[in-house]
Write a structure and sequence with these properties.
The protein is an alpha/beta fold. The chain has seven helices and 13 strands.
Length: about 280
């Protein structure tokens, strides 16, 4: 008989050691569970002596923490996501799937519960193009482009190369800027069903969770930018992306927008975009 806790799903909040005492404390989720969806905060620990360590809210002053043995860097976010998904399926009996969340979100809890109780799709979120996508021809994924997002990020955060938990010594980020030109869910907030989560874990296990893997089909590096990576893996495995523009609030002025957001039908507000 399984001893796993039965839940409808996991609200997975990805963070890092740097933000444990800032962003994670500022998240406005007051409960550890919503509509039988468990809230789990993820942090990487490169030197952990086990694959993962789970601490429930009874011992952590009201939060569930999942420590994953992996690099805690921004560059390794896909690896952290997939390893954390693998772990929560070992810890919980999950009925629906995982809601992937960033640590820089402000939640409308009423709208969150409405969403959790609603119909969902295998790969479900909000894209910049405001449109769903079905990859009917895999050759479309061979269209590539140079994406300097990570290169520019590390130009501004060179101190990360010195953090032993990031394991970035000797890494030239600019070498991995060629990736498939595709769109999918914005990375701060999207849903993956049980089916999609299994595909994600299986795909990355075959690559030994190596984000620097050069994909032969596209002759590029699809696993460097997490949300682009998830889209690529979903499309390679015939999973359709369904778009919903009510996932993330769009605004430009924080103080005014916070009131408007709470009156809207959107679920989260991306606070970091105001900085």
């Amino acid at each position: 008989m399984s001893t796993k806790k039965e839940v409808n799903g996991i609200i997975l909040i990805l963070s890092c050691q740097k933000h444990k005492d800032t962003r994670l404390k500022e998240i406005n989720l007051k409960n550890t569970s919503y509509a039988n969806w468990e809230v789990v905060h993820v942090i990487g620990d490169f030197f952990l002596d086990a694959n993962y360590k789970y601490e429930n809210n009874e011992n952590t002053h009201g939060k569930n923490y999942l420590y994953i043995r992996c690099e805690d860097s921004y560059l390794h976010l896909l690896k952290k996501l997939v390893l954390s998904i693998k772990a929560v399926y070992e810890i919980f009996d999950i009925k629906e799937g995982v809601l992937r969340c960033g640590d820089d979100l402000y939640f409308n809890e009423k709208n969150l519960v409405t969403f959790l109780n609603s119909r969902k799709y295998d790969y479900y979120g909000q894209s910049k193009k405001s449109e769903s996508y079905k990859c009917v021809n895999k050759n479309v994924l061979r269209k590539r482009g140079i994406d300097l997002f990570m290169t520019r990020y590390y130009e501004k955060h060179s101190e990360d190369f010195l953090n032993p938990h990031h394991n970035l010594k000797g890494i030239d980020v600019s070498m991995y800027s060629l990736r498939p030109k595709i769109h999918g869910a914005i990375g701060v907030f999207f849903f993956l069903s049980n089916k999609a989560c299994a595909i994600l874990v299986n795909h990355m296990q075959k690559l030994n969770f190596n984000i620097f893997h050069r994909d032969r089909f596209t002759n590029s590096y699809p696993y460097i930018i997490e949300d682009c990576s998830v889209a690529f893996i979903m499309y390679m495995n015939d999973i359709v992306y369904i778009d919903n523009q009510a996932f993330i609030y769009k605004g430009n002025e924080y103080q005014r927008d916070i009131d408007d957001f709470m009156k809207s039908n959107t679920i989260v507000m991306h606070t970091n975009r105001y900085k």
